[in-house]
Design goal:
Layout (H helix, E strand, L loop, with lengths): L10 E4 L3 E4 L3 H8 L1 H4 L21 H21 L6 H12 L10 H6 L6 H15 L5 H8 L5 H7 L5 H14 L8 H6 L1 E4 L2 E5 L3 H19 L2 H22 L8 H9 L9 H7 L4 H11 L5 H11 L5 E5 L5 H15 L3 H4 L4 E7 L10 E3 L5 E3 H4 L5 H4 L3 E8 L1 H6 L1
Parallel strand pairs: 4-7
Antiparallel strand pairs: 1-2, 3-4, 5-9, 6-9, 7-8
Length: about 425
């Protein structure tokens, strides 16, 4: 059992919302648990601080902020006559508090490189189930809300939907820490305008402009922050460094790594390995420090690819990037690959780690997912895509896909 303190009436001084109170002793004990404390060691925005130096906030910050917003949303809905029991309120707060426990260091980069086959949602659910076991079944309702199987489905929508407490917090928080004012949203008004109609989350019609601003802010934050071309460069360089490390490790090469990182580099089988106890134990020990410490040591590894990528990330000598609407012709990528092979004395497969061409897309509003409903005084529910009259939200519901090419800057200049 986790260590239990006596004084559990704590508050956090959050730079975004001010004081955040811990609502009860169970939530205090969950925050104190090593699974949750690990989130202090995982940056919310991965390598984005290489572009926006202030983006050093953590998933610990974000999870507490999302819980704070959940408390506010529940109070708003109760004030409008909707019944949410104390047990349901606690469970919803726990579900949002723990929603990111399955994130690994550098988040999605890890999912695509060495922890393949396991999404952070799967891992978060597994952590919730493990905590439920440790806490004697007290998280059963929170688990059901997280999974979306609890009968009152609006509680799940507050945790995971297109207007959930997760998205509201990360947009407001990420805008704050990056200094990108275009992402600033009025979280207070958005939540105050929430309503429930037939167990569906909705927004009162007078809050429509706040919803429009939320969707626009989401689009702008994706292009300016989350999918910024230099951020893409850094993340894909890290992705390739980890892939190369895994290839070398599985090929019998000696690599420095913490025991948990070594497990995922050499022993973990992804889809075949599943979520067994050993996998969970090792994942629960992984954080940003494992990865970056390894990169610092790998700078001096005899493998040219791994050492070059590691040096480039540690010293922020990032690849140059070209971002465009059309795919890059094979003649262009092939020429650059040949130049990389010649310059570094590498074969085509090895040189491929230093040439990245891929696509990225921005989908500000997904009409195919649980929609954002606007409720009018006569009780009509209308999708924001049809309700919006000031901005054409339907345009933002169409994904925008761009192609990008990354490689050492000298080869972009030459091509």
């Amino acid at each position: 059992m986790p260590y239990l303190r006596q004084n559990k009436k704590k508050i956090f001084n959050d730079p975004v919302y001010g004081f955040i109170s811990i609502p009860d002793e169970l939530i205090f004990d969950l925050i104190e648990h090593p699974y949750f404390q690990r989130l202090r060691r995982i940056k919310q925005l991965g390598l984005t601080h290489l572009v926006y130096p202030g983006a050093l906030h953590t998933r610990f910050h974000h999870s507490l902020g999302a819980m704070f917003l959940m408390q506010h949303a529940i109070n708003v809905l109760r004030s409008k006559g909707h019944t949410i029991t104390n047990e349901e309120a606690q469970a919803a707060c726990i579900a949002i508090l723990l929603h990111d426990t399955g994130h690994g260091p550098y988040s999605h980069t890890l999912e695509q490189s060495i922890v393949r086959g396991l999404s952070h949602e799967q891992l978060s659910l597994r952590f919730i189930e493990e905590l439920n076991s440790q806490f004697g079944g007290k998280l059963s309702m929170a688990r059901d809300i997280f999974k979306g199987v609890y009968p009152k489905k609006v509680l799940h929508q507050l945790v995971s939907s297109q207007l959930d407490m997760d998205r509201i917090d990360y947009l407001k928080r990420d805008s704050f820490f990056t200094g990108v004012s275009e992402g600033a949203i009025n979280a207070e008004r958005l939540i105050t305008m929430l309503e429930v109609i037939d167990d569906e989350l909705a927004v009162e019609a007078k809050g429509i402009y706040s919803v429009e601003k939320f969707i626009i802010a989401r689009r702008l934050m994706y292009w300016q922050v989350y999918l910024h071309k230099t951020v893409l460069s850094a993340e894909f360089m890290l992705l390739n460094a980890l892939k190369r490390a895994r290839q070398l490790s599985r090929g019998g090469h000696q690599l420095f790594a913490t025991p948990s990182l070594a497990y995922f580099l050499s022993d973990f089988e992804g889809e075949n390995g599943g979520l067994d106890q050993e996998t969970m134990r090792n994942f629960a020990q992984l954080d940003d420090f494992d990865i970056f410490t390894a990169l610092k040591v790998w700078q001096h590894h005899p493998d040219k690819v791994l050492s070059y990528l590691s040096q480039s990330i540690v010293n922020r000598n990032l690849f140059g990037v070209i971002l465009q609407n059309d795919a890059f012709p094979e003649s262009k990528t092939g020429l650059i690959l040949q130049k990389i092979m010649k310059k570094f004395g590498l074969g085509a497969e090895e040189a491929g780690y230093l040439l990245i061409h891929n696509t990225t897309s921005n989908h500000a509003y997904h009409p195919g997912q649980a929609r954002i409903n606007i409720v009018y005084k006569d009780g009509r529910l209308v999708d924001i895509q049809q309700a919006s009259d000031q901005l054409n939200i339907s345009v933002l519901s169409v994904p925008v896909t761009k192609h990008f090419l990354c490689c050492p800057k000298q080869f972009l200049a030459e091509s």
